[in-house]
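Write out the 3D structure for:
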Amino acid sequence: MDSRDKPVRLWKSFSYALTGIKTALWLERNMRIHLIASIFVIGCSLYFSISKFEWLFVIVAIGGIFSLELINTAIERVVDMITDKYHPLAKQAKDLAAGAVFIYAVTAVVIGIFIFLPHVLRWL
């Protein structure tokens, strides 16, 4: 393999990742909900001029929820591809992946409460 091929392969891997993100945003309702919530949170972060430290938590919460939602969607697709019949293990795989997203979403909400509640209370 020629070392000149590496940048092309790297760019292709980025384009595949971006295609996956676009596909999920287009086809998955929950991804669109997370996107809208993220835009709202970023707007609140700018409005309240949160600290750099608070921004780190906001970025990790947003990035984490998108990442887990993409993994959940991938698991659902693979399970659906393998079988179109009900199987308890297929259901468990989907439920476990959805549970991971739910736990992280609750965690992100708790992070949001810790960060934004003091700002909102001062604002009121």
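The chain has one domain: 30-123.
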